[in-house]
TrEMBL record:
InterPro entries: CoA-transferase_III_domain (IPR050483), CoA-Trfase_fam_III (IPR003673), CoA-Trfase_III_dom3_sf (IPR044855), CoA-Trfase_III_dom_1_sf (IPR023606). This is CoA transferase. Keywords: Transferase. Transmembrane segments: none annotated. Pfam families: CoA_transf_3 (PF02515). It comes from Neobacillus citreus. GO terms for molecular function: CoA-transferase activity. SUPFAM superfamilies: CoA-transferase family III (CaiB/BaiF).
Length: 405
């Protein structure tokens, strides 16, 4: 069954993580993604290790369901090919540095002349205005600028970024929501429009309640490690073999926790009688809980806590999550046929649609693997393709390139 965006054509000139993550979402929803890559190098994420049978895992994760076309955008002949594609497209996505698309002749105003109904999405580091808008930016840089790193980790611990591309992929989500919203508007009015988002805007939005906390109290939010500013006990507590994450947000849950720990007297202890008191005495509570947890393994405690209705989990390693029964039960993994990687699988998008399923149909493309096919569909004949190959405007997959020499 075709996805909800079946029939939507997207021209994708993005690279690295943020833009390709955006177009991956659209691809899994059924859109046709024509991924434009640089000669020889391709998307930067192709070179981001570690590697699986020579393929960068960053690239593998976020470039399924796409077609790869190699075009040199520095050449006028290359830009002409993109113009031909834009005339047939519904969406154009770029994540260049601020104003670079305009300088290359690929800005919104130029492409709108070619296709007035085009939905054009620009995903940048810092947004379209302000003193930082022309700075280059990566996920970790935007995490620092938006305050995320400043509140991440525990007090006194080494400064650390959130170790996933939370702003790259977060901004991709907002960009995809923007594109889909613009397509809905286009369906009703026939109008295209410009969609913009950025890593910085995403980061500022993510820290929203911390900013409101500062506005309300004047107190700088503190680092809490695995804990929570507003609740206690809340965080990671060490059992005999691994940490256990426990979340207590009200007196009822605290009473259940005390029963499991064999400390029902804590319910009447003035230091712990309500959440504000528990927050004030959180360190005493943490030490006391960990002393008790040392008697059993994390798995044993989690079973007892879950049976008592206390929100909890073992702090799992990535290898445990890959093989977790819950991950398997909700079918997060999709087996995908790959030309060089045996037993290749990818995690699906984290939502499902009952009538128009989201799916992974194709493995990430080889560099230039669809160049010839796409040009043929645009009406380029054999002689024109040969000329573009010879002058370096395009490249096709290596094994095919040999057949043209």
């Amino acid at each position: 069954m075709p996805g909800p965006l079946s029939g939507i054509r997207v021209v994708d000139v993005t690279t690295n993580v943020s833009g390709p993550s955006l177009t991956m979402i659209l691809a899994d929803l059924g859109a046709e993604i024509i991924k434009i890559e640089r000669p020889d190098i391709g998307d930067d994420s192709r070179g981001m290790g570690p590697f699986w049978e020579g393929e960068g895992v960053y690239f593998l994760h976020i470039n399924r369901n796409k077609q790869s076309v190699v075009i040199d955008l520095k050449k006028e002949s290359g830009r002409e090919i993109v113009y031909d594609l834009v005339k047939t497209a519904d969406v154009f996505v770029e994540n260049f540095r601020f104003q670079k698309a305009e300088k290359m002749g690929l800005g919104y105003e130029r492409l709108k002349e070619l296709n007035p109904s085009l939905v054009y999405c620009s995903l940048s580091a810092y947004g379209q205005d302000g003193p930082l808008c022309d700075r280059p930016g990566y996920d970790a840089i935007a995490q620092a600028d938006s305050g995320i790193i400043g509140i991440n980790g525990a007090e006194g611990a080494e400064i650390a970024r959130v170790p996933v591309s939370v702003l790259d992929q977060g901004s991709a989500m907002w960009g995809a929501i923007g594109v889909i919203s613009a397509l809905f508007h286009k369906q009703k009015t026939g109008e295209g429009q410009l969609v913009t988002t950025s890593l910085y805007e995403t980061g500022v939005f993510w820290v929203g309640y911390h900013m409101l906390s500062w506005l309300a109290t004047g107190n700088e939010p503190k680092k809490n490690g695995a804990g929570h500013t507003a609740f206690a006990p809340y965080g990671a507590f060490h059992a005999s073999d691994a940490p256990v994450m426990i979340g207590i947000s009200n007196n009822s849950l605290f009473k259940r926790l005390c029963k499991v720990l064999g400390k029902e007297e804590w319910v009447e202890d003035p230091r712990y009688k309500n959440n504000p008191e528990r927050v004030e005495h959180r360190e005493n509570l943490r030490v006391a809980i960990e002393n008790i947890l040392q008697a059993k393994t994390a798995d044993e405690w989690v079973q007892l806590l879950v049976d008592a209705g206390v929100p909890s989990s073992k702090v799992k390693k990535i290898s445990e999550v890959v093989q977790d029964q819950q991950t398997e039960a909700i079918q997060m993994w999709t087996d995908v046929k790959h030309s060089t990687i045996k037993d290749f699988k990818l995690p699906r998008l984290p939502f499902e649609l009952s009538s128009s399923p989201v799916s992974i149909q194709k493995a990430p493309p080889k560099l230039g693997g669809n160049t010839e096919e796409i040009l043929n569909k645009l009406g380029y004949n054999k002689e024109q393709i040969e000329q573009l190959l010879n002058d370096g405007t395009i490249q096709i997959e290596a094994k095919k390139l040999e057949s043209h020499k």
